[in-house]
Amino acid sequence: MATPEEFEAAAARSKELPAKPDNTALLKMYSLYKQGSEGDVSGDRPGGFDFKAIAKYDAWAGQKGKSQDDARQEYVDFVNSLF
Length: 83
Known about the structure:
The protein is mainly α. It has 4 helices and no strands. The longest helix has 16 residues. The two termini are 20 Å apart.
């Protein structure tokens, strides 16, 4: 399992990627980071025409039930795979 320090180091390292990932990869990174740092999604799903917020909410909701430890490890592995 990734330690909290490894998780935060991967988050910092993600800002130094050689190329910007596509939207699918960005949503995966976002959802794993949120699940790893906060746990299951809470609050209401955004409505209206805020498609970016809806996509982010749905991606995070897709991680529901995954333990924070598993999400942190998956996040670290995924960020490392982008280099």
